[in-house]
């Protein structure tokens, strides 16, 4: 493989399992109460997901979140991040992203 001049780290989407460059994915973290929130720059264990509807849907499944964060207890997507429709430019996350 040819070497790239600017290396952007790759991360795996927890929805589809595809590897993407980090800056094309949304970073999520879980707080101590088991709430999953968006966090672009924070430290700690993050999970990454593609900004599209099919991958985002997976975040509503507890077992996917649990596996992604290696967490035993209850875990849930923050209500602000639920029910987002990607691709219409109308949700707040998408506005901030693009
Ligand atoms: Zn994906």
Descriptive account of the structure:
- It is a single chain.
- With 98 residues, the protein is of the alpha+beta class.
- The protein has one domain: 2-Layer Sandwich (Hypothetical Cytosolic Protein, Chain: A), CATH 3.30.1230.
- The protein has helices spanning 53-57, 62-69, 92-97; strands at residues 10-12, 19-21, 26-30, 35-38, 47-49, 76-77.
- A 4-stranded mixed β-sheet has the order 5-3-4-6, with helices on one face. Strands 1-2 form a two-stranded antiparallel ribbon.
- Strand 1 (10-12) and strand 2 form a beta hairpin.
- The termini are far apart.
- The structure holds zinc ion.
- Zinc ion is lined by residues 13, 15-16, 18, 50, 55.
Please describe the structure with a list of short key phrases separated by commas or semicolons.
98 residues, alpha+beta, Hypothetical Cytosolic Protein, Chain: A, 4-stranded mixed sheet, two-stranded antiparallel sheet, 6 strands, globular, binds zinc ion
Topology overview:
Elements: E1 10-12, E2 19-21, E3 26-30, E4 35-38, E5 47-49, H1 53-57, H2 62-69, E6 76-77, H3 92-97
Parallel strand pairs: 4-6
Antiparallel strand pairs: 1-2, 3-4, 3-5
The structure holds zinc ion (ZN).
């Amino acid at each position: 493989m040819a070497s790239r001049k600017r290396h952007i780290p790759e991360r795996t989407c927890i929805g589809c399992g595809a590897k993407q460059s980090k800056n094309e994915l949304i970073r999520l973290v879980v707080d101590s109460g088991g709430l999953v929130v968006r966090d672009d720059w924070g430290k700690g264990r993050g999970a990454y997901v593609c900004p599209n509807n099919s991958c985002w849907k997976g975040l509503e499944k507890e077992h996917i979140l649990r596996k992604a964060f290696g967490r035993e207890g209850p875990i849930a997507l923050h209500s602000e991040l639920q029910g987002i429709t990607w691709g219409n430019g109308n949700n707040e996350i998408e506005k901030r992203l693009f």
